[in-house]
Give the backbone structure.
Amino acid sequence: MKPLSGIRIADFTVHNAGPFCTHLLSQLGAEVIKIESAMRPDAFRKPHPVYGRMGPATFDQVASTKLSVRINLKKAEGIALAKRIVGVSDIAAESFRPGVMDRLGLSYGALKAVKDDIVMLSVSSSGQSGPDSHFAGYAPLFGAWGGLGELTGYEDGPPVEIRHVMDHTVGMNAAAAVMAALHHRRASGQGSHVDVAAREVAASLVGDMLLLAAAGGSPRRMGNAHASMAPHGVYPARGEDRWLALAVGSDAEWATLARLMGKPELNGDARFTDAASRRANTEALDAIVSDWTRTQEANEAAAALQSAGIGAHASWTTPELAADPHLKERGAIIEVAEPDGTPRAAVGVPMRLSKGPEIGIHSGTPKLGEHEDFVYGELLGMSEAERKRLEDAEVIY
Amino acid sequence: MTREADVPLTGLKVVVHASGVAAAYAARMLGTMGGQVLLIEPAGGTALRRQPPFLPGAKGEESEESALFTYLAAGMESAVIDLAAPEGQARLAGCLNGADVFIDDTPISARERLGIDKASLTERFPNLVHVSVLPFGAHGPKASWKGEDVVVQHAGGEGNLLPNGLAVEMFPDRAPLKIGGHFGEMQGGIAAALGALSALWARPECGGQYVDISCQDANLAVGAFAIQRLGDGSIEHRVERSFRYGGVIPCADGYLEMLTLEQRQWDGLVELLGRPDWALDPALADSLERSRRGPEINRHIREWASARKVDDIVDAGQKLGVPLARYKTPAEILRDPQERHRGLFQPINVDGVGLVDALVSPFHFNEAPLTLRGGPPALNAAQETAAAEG
């Protein structure tokens, strides 16, 4: 069984972080009702010329497996309609700027009045409280505020922008938090308001470095290097822009690598006896390793290293990921269909469950308002006439 | 501080056997949300205890306390158990008897010998949620593959797509870059926490089950847009993926992030820059034209910013609705009024170091931050409890 079957989510989230959260929950079996409107079309219903997409997306990862209804939240009757959906839901999720739900009349208190044990999830850039709570932000700003950006980069270079992975790790964190709140509801009968701050998620990913700084240490960015392992990093492989990531975790692994490189004599080299000496002589070490990796096909070298017990993998491009048998066997890469039936690769929920083999994406991007017969008709029991009136009044719009 | 009654996972019992970050991070997440976590360690302690960097001691000298272990294990209890010995396996069974979740990152090939393979645990603990956390998962042709953070980030796709913006402009020929710290391993941990809580939700209907988490899968999941764009017909590359203008901007005293995606934000930026002639070019009113002329725009922005301080630009820009952020150092985050207001940090006691501020959790429940149960456990600190239960 899908573990979250029976859970219903009223999904007000926008952009990437919030929708990715409810997308994960939908793949795990929750029924997610995406509340949107022609007034403010979702980003994926609009062109994105920067990425060369001149029309709406034909497949949108984060909207897949969701139901779509139209509600114009600028109308009082739209708010009332939204509350009716919340009234039959377990979770209400939103990712507006703090204060927007309050102004709409959809605060936690207002939703609790409709459904006493509702779990409300709010995802925002800086959290629902504090002097910066009104800040708008995007993924690179979360990374900058949270220290992840500062601690990413070449040692002698600038900090680095953290992109969509930042939004999506916020979403995956939020999914775990909202599940915890559901367990709390099961145990206590009480709903709750879950407040996830994106910049705090960024900071939580470098919590060890923040702790080091709090104790008086000086954490800094260090490229692909590791505080104790060497060789460790991303090395040039054969071919244009081909790279091999590898990490040698012990002296025994180093001896193995020396043998694989055809240089067993390095094993007795005083510069490389143990991790500390290898770290101290990283420049010479990396030059030797690079001389070997440059002659190797990245995937073949990774397989050979793994067979010998050394952690390694080619630095993969997107087409390599999409075609990988391992990821496909795990359901991490799945095939979905475009509206015209053309197959394309998509990304599944990152887990396998022994009693839930059917988790994953089961439908593509819904059309705007595609599921109103089910939600308004079956679920809320609205008559055709009532729906028609609300459409004419641009409430269902 | 969250009231005990509001801590969501109060009563949840978690046993974790972790030598790596991902499994430990999963347990940490469940622990900060109220779960009681027991860390099973071999004699001498988990390898995480020996991971540098080490925290400076009270007198500034290097202590033996790993920053990583301290962060991951704060609030956990510890039991040293030799899983290779029958009596150790019996003690673990005692711990698992009362547990809801068991999280383990032992390589597949070593599990049976330790009595913690899927089949034995399923048979003996039918209500247990058994979470396996491995670099490439427990199933599939690469299930036996090893992978540190750098390996799983590059196996998951985002590694190859970084850096972008200023860093790749400066160093176009260098190796692609991983995100700092343990980002890739932590993604596996976050997915594992979600997997554990999802499986637990279904437990009343179907009993315990086996949750198979792969750090590679988790990295791929958070990088899903690259696969989406592949389907749209474009293959991303770290050089072309950069925002055409804005991004990481060097200032007189540090770096800021600038990202204007909407017209009103661009209009605000023009105001912030003081309405210079170049920015008032009517052609730049069009967003596609701005993208085309991104490098030229950035030359102007960088020249302007180089003589100004980050905070001055950010303060003025925020008033004009321009999305801007300082690239904050850890020290700046620790004293930031926003993080202080939110209660993001809590002092914990670390042996040989003293009281240190530790990040608790990025979640608030019912308008209150969570709390850590304490600092990192001394080795075997929960021995009596574990023995009593065993």
